Structures are given as structure tokens and as C-alpha cells.
């Protein structure tokens, strides 16, 4: 990889009114920018509705979807002094022990107990969250003192909308900030490219002869961390848990072996496949037993994909429009090229596309 790429290279001007605060009324009615890569020319760009995506998928292709489910991980609580504290659970570390982001972090220390009142009964027993370790200025380790299950914890929590959606989570977000195929609880942010799919659209896609490979990556703290270094190669990604089950590996391998395209729904699916393949290749190099097939696996990945990376499995990406100078924009730029990506974003802005989690989509093939 090129080790001298600057974070500022991934900046662009985004008017605040282009950020979507709410989703469109029907998931697949969002806009879709279709970007067709060409070897020695600028990409071909066209515009459609997301429900038309089936027209750009071929029999024999496969879609890779992330079936993680967002948990109600955001809590508003109070110290004994009455100070208001916000807690965002990031990932489980053990029984009732979590990594968490706390604001304002300076108001808590090891041993601080934060009380969260029930959402519908302020006279009920509060949820007790204790700070047990301070890992850095914002990230802490916390323990839930009086809960015996994640389901119980979620009774007190809210859907953790991203900070650029400047409103409180509403009842509708509990459904719309989840994909229709979400299944396994564990994320603190949605794999937002998947928010555009309806069950009906997925059925139509499968009926066309396009298979669906279901993988898992629990979205964690990396989604919220900005790139603060000048040289992007100095940025450290937090690790996230992933799983590639046997059925998904079989679908992906058969698609590659038969000449079909592996199209990842979202950057989380890209990171899962590419991260797993990099781990596998490293293991193969050590053992001397190499294979081109993707293996069944699970574990942690902190893969950071930016321009210069050579993709190993990904043939296409469905993605939303991402924040300036974000690792997500860097991943898209690695696949499409930085200049091509920024040009596509400029066209999207001029064409009234909506940006970020509840915004419109892009298909890159």
C-alpha cells in the first residue's frame, strides 16, 4: 500500500441540508447511483431507484449481507450528584461487562455508578451501570450491576442513532434503523447499505438466480472514531467480531468458481470478506497450504482498507454516501479510485442525493 496518503485527500464540502435525518417512506424508493468501472476510462454513472437494482445484477451473482442487529445500546443516566451522563455500550467483554463510550467522560472515574430510569416508569428500579476501568479519555469498561440478560438491558436503552442525525431516536427508528434481515444482536450502528432492501426485493433478486450469502460483523466503535492523523497509514482501526458460516462460504466460493460476481452489501460485508481472506492467507503462508477458497471462520478483524489495497473477493459494492475523511470513504476510494469517488460524490451533491445512514445508495460494479 501507499504509506503516504493524507487524510485531507478524502475531504469534501457537504452542506448540512444534504444529511438525511429520516429515511424515505419506503425503503427501496431511495435513489441509487450506478457506477460502472472501466479499465482505462472514467466510470460510467447513471441514476435509478433502489428497487431497480435487480436490473444490474446477473444470474449467477451473489449478494453478501450482514445479518447483525442493532441493540438499544444508548443510555441516559445520572450520577448521585444529579449530573447527566450518556453511555453507549460498544461491545461485550464478559458477563455483564462491556466496553463503552461515555460523555462527558471527565465526569466519571473508576467506581462511578450511573443510574438509568426505566423508559415508561420513572418510579421503577433503575438500571445500575458502574465504571470499572478507564481505557482512555472516552472509552471505558463498565459493568451492569442488576441485569441478567441483554434483553433486560435493552428495556432501558435507546437505538443509538449516529451523532450527525441531530435528533433523539423515535419509535419508528426501532424498525427503520434495522435491516429487514437483521437477526443476531450485537451492533451499535446499522450496516446502512442494507436498509434499502425490502423482503419483496430480496425475493425478486433470489428468483432471478442470484444467491444471498449471510455473514456477520458486529459494528463497533470504529464507526464513531474519526481519522485524526495526517497520514492515514498511522490510523488504527478497532477490531470487530465477525463470522462466516459454512453456507455463506459455499455460496461465495461457488460464485467465484463459476465466474459470477460477489457483490457486498455495505462496507461491513466488504471488511468481513476481505478481513477473513487476509487472515486466511496469512495462515496459509505460515503453513504452506494455500487455497483460493474462502473458509468457514470467525474471530476479530481490524482490517483498514484504503487506496492501494488489492481486493481478494469483492467484485461489487452497494454502499451509502459517507462522511468526509472517514474510513468508510477510504474503503470506497480503494475500490473505485479516489478521484472517481470524489467525482461521484460531487455529482451526487448536484443531483440532490441524500447522504449518510438514512440517505441514498450507490452501486459500484
Provide the CATH superfamily of the largest domain. QueA-like
CATH architectural category of the largest domain? 3-Layer(aba) Sandwich
Strand % is 25-35%
Structural class by helix and strand composition: alpha/beta
Q: Quote the average pLDDT.
A: 93
* Proportion of residues in helical segments: 10-25%
Strand order of the largest sheet: 2-1-17-16-14-3-12-13-15
Number of helices: 7
Describe this protein's structure:
The protein has 365 residues and is an alpha/beta fold. It folds into 2 domains: 7-70 and 175-364, QueA-like, CATH 3.40.1780; 74-157, Beta Barrel (Thrombin, subunit H). The chain is 20% helix and 27% strand. The chain has 7 helices and 17 strands. Strands 2-1-17-16-14-3-12-13-15 form a 9-stranded mixed sheet. The model has no long low-confidence stretch (mean pLDDT 93).
Summarize the structure in short:
This protein has 365 residues and is an alpha/beta fold.
Task: Tag the structure with descriptive keywords.
QueA-like, 17 strands, 6-stranded antiparallel beta sheet, globular, 365 residues, Thrombin, subunit H
Task: Explain the layout of strands and helices.
Blueprint: E1 31-38, E2 41-49, E3 62-66, E4 68-70, E5 74-78, E6 84-94, E7 97-103, E8 113-116, E9 127-134, E10 139-144, H1 150-154, H2 173-176, E11 184-187, H3 199-207, E12 211-217, E13 240-244, H4 246-257, E14 262-265, H5 267-287, E15 297-301, E16 316-320, H6 327-336, H7 338-350, E17 361-364
Parallel strand pairs: 1-17, 3-12, 3-14, 4-11, 14-16
Antiparallel strand pairs: 1-2, 5-6, 6-7, 7-10, 8-9, 9-10, 12-13, 13-15, 16-17
Helix pairs in contact: 6-7
